[in-house]
């Protein structure tokens, strides 16, 4: 692949990471609205666990997708670093591998924090 194709692929990978966050964000918004109106207060435990399970499933699936994209993007950084006489953009992208590792760690930390807050919002503990 040439430099332009690799940069285009990089942009596709960044879009995939963002798009993978859409479904969980919508589920969290719906859960927040239901919790904000106090609807979980009268809900059965089964309903609460179902809501928590849906939040967890969408979050886990999104995280798996994001990790796969990050792994591919790391390899793309390696490929861009091997391109001879590449432009400034390609060089900067090639140097982004450590940022991708930070992003992966942040995804896990934020996922755990948001899950804990969601549990608290649903069960009120």
Notes on the protein architecture:
This protein has 125 residues and is mainly alpha-helical. The chain has one domain: Topoisomerase I, Chain A, domain 4. It has five helices and no strands. The chain has helices spanning 3-20, 22-36, 45-82, 88-94, 97-123. Helix 2 runs antiparallel to helix 3 (45-82), helix 3 crosses helix 4 (88-94) and helix 3 packs antiparallel against helix 5.
What's the shape?
elongated
Oligomer: single chain
By helix and strand content, what is the structural category? mainly alpha
- In the CATH classification, which architecture applies? Orthogonal Bundle
CATH superfamily: Ribosome-recycling factor
Q: What is the first-to-last residue Cα distance? A: 53 Å
CATH hierarchy, class:
Mainly Alpha
Largest sheet: none
Which regions are unreliable across 5 or more consecutive residues at pLDDT < 50? none
The share of residues in helices is over 70%
Overall pLDDT level: 92
Could you say how many structural domains there are in total? 1
- Report the count of strand segments: 0
CATH topology descriptor: Topoisomerase I, Chain A, domain 4
Tell me the β content.
under 5%
Topology summary:
Elements (H helix, E strand, L loop, with lengths): L2 H18 L1 H15 L8 H38 L5 H7 L2 H27 L2
Brief description of this entry?
It is built from 5 helices and no strands.
């Amino acid at each position: 692949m040439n430099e332009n194709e690799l940069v285009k692929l990089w942009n596709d990978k960044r879009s995939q990471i963002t798009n993978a966050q859409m479904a969980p964000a919508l589920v969290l918004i719906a859960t927040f609205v239901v919790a904000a109106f106090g609807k979980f207060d009268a809900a059965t435990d089964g309903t609460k666990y179902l809501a928590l399970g849906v939040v967890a499933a969408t979050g886990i699936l999104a995280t798996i997708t994001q990790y796969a994209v990050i792994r591919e993007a790391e390899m793309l950084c390696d490929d861009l670093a091997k391109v001879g006489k590449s432009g400034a953009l390609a060089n900067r992208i090639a140097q982004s591998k450590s940022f991708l590792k930070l992003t992966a760690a942040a995804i896990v930390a934020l996922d755990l924090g948001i899950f804990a807050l969601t549990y608290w919002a649903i069960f009120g503990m």
